[in-house]
Amino acid sequence: MKYCVLIIDGAAGWPIKDRGNKTTLELAHTPNLDALAREGTLGLTNNVPPGMEPSSAVACMSLLGYDPAVYYRGRAAIEAVSMGIPVGRGEVVFRCNLVATKSGRMWSYCCGHIESEEARELINALNEKLGSDDVQFYPGVGYRHLLKLKGHTEMTAAVCTPPHDIPDKAVAQYLPKGRGSRFLNKLMADSQEVLKHHPVNYHRVARGQVPATSIWLFWGSGPIPQTPSFKEAYGLKAAITSGVDLLRGLGMMMGMTILDIKGVTDNIKNNFAGQAESALAALDIHGLVVVHVEAPDEAGHAGNTSEKIEAIERIDADVVSRLRSYRGDLSILVMPDHPTPVAARTHVAEPVPFLMWGRGFEAENAGRFTEAEAARTALLIPQGHNVMRRFTGGRKNAEA
Fold first, then answer.
1. Do residues 31 and 92 both lie within one domain?
2. Which domain holds residue 44?
3. Of 19, 20, 18, 23, nearest to 339 (Cα)?
4. How far apart are the first and last CA of the chain?
5. DSSP secondary structure of 268-297
6. Contact call for residues 55 and 75 (beta carbons, < 8 A)
């Protein structure tokens, strides 16, 4: 038996008033997902434990079968694992987004999805002007980067707000607050002067693109705790493909093989077909493969209904169709990590539909893979980290 886990990041959401009160999953044409839903087990689960942030870090850790209440200590350090950045005692890391503000408001949390090459130039300039032995910037993917600080462990106590939570809002009231925040705010302010006159921004403005006007610091954390490997927890050698450092970092924490696939990105330009084909090829030497697709989440953050629908339809046509045609004994788990409603433009801690298909999973009389159909089955797994155990047969316990 082989297993595939397909994470359609942020695909769930709320009914959209001007689209007939339907969600993007309901609006999307998804014949392959719907076929799996009619033949498999459909239900609801919640990947975000009560009181925890509805971030992809928490939700994806849960989806992958690890209890966030036990293992989660902050997102930035997980991304540092993926980027090969050691975080030792007395050191902390923060997510460092390149953002654009205009007239004191959050204009773009991602600088119009700046490409990695241009972003790297900007991060290198920040290192040259603001870096030191205790302050180091690390370039990541697109707009997502990291800042590592030495000797400032108190800064993890600062209250920080992710920029994607405050689209079009006045930024002054959402700057870091509390203990350790003064230094973070100074770095953010100083970054504006460095970025203002950088050639990359001149070129972006000339091309009609969004410039990077500032860094934004959040999701601070120290070293992460050790987790059992996925093989130890579930008895399966696993691999993962994703266009973001977070999922690669989680995979590395769990001892998974990281699949480097050309063209895999965090948005609608993703190589959907290549991602699916390479993932299935990895099943030759792995018992389970995780396919994480970020595109629906990014469209949700942008408040772009049409692009979110397109992303879901591309996943159905280019990924799910290939999973269905796999020649072998394959079980498939499909679910979002969290909802990213286009009206909210951020994550919410609400239940998501899950679908388990393959030998041993009985039909629940569902017609489509949607939030409403999943609720109608009345199958609820309250804690999302228990879904993986049910899906794989639960060979070992990953809670402790």
1. no
2. 2-73+225-392
3. 23
4. 26
5. TT--HHHHHHHHHHHTTT-SEEEEEE-HHH
6. yes
Name residue, tokens 């007395």. 90
Span 372-397, mean pLDDT?
A: 88
Residue 400, in any domain of the structure = no
Find, among 94, 53, 79, the residue nearest to 347 by Cα: 53
Tell me the Cα Rg of the chain: 21
Query: Helices 245-253 and 75-83 meet at what angle, rounded to 10?
Result: 80
**H/E element holding 231?**
helix 230-234
Please list, in sequence order, all residues whose beta carbon lies within 8 angstroms of the beta carbon of residue 130, skipping any fewer than 6 positions away.
137, 187, 190, 191, 194
Least confident of 152-156, 183-187, 345-349, 379-383: 152-156
Amino acid at 345: R
Alpha helices in 46-97 (DSSP H): 56-63, 68-71, 75-83
pLDDT in tens, 27-80: 999 999 999 999 999 999 999 999 999 999 999 999 999 999 999 988 899 999
Q: Is the torsion defined by CA of 49, 240, 234, 392 positive or negative? A: positive
CATH number at residue 260: 3.40.720.10
Shared domain for 299 and 342, answered yes or no, is yes
Tokens 């923060």 belong to residue = 94
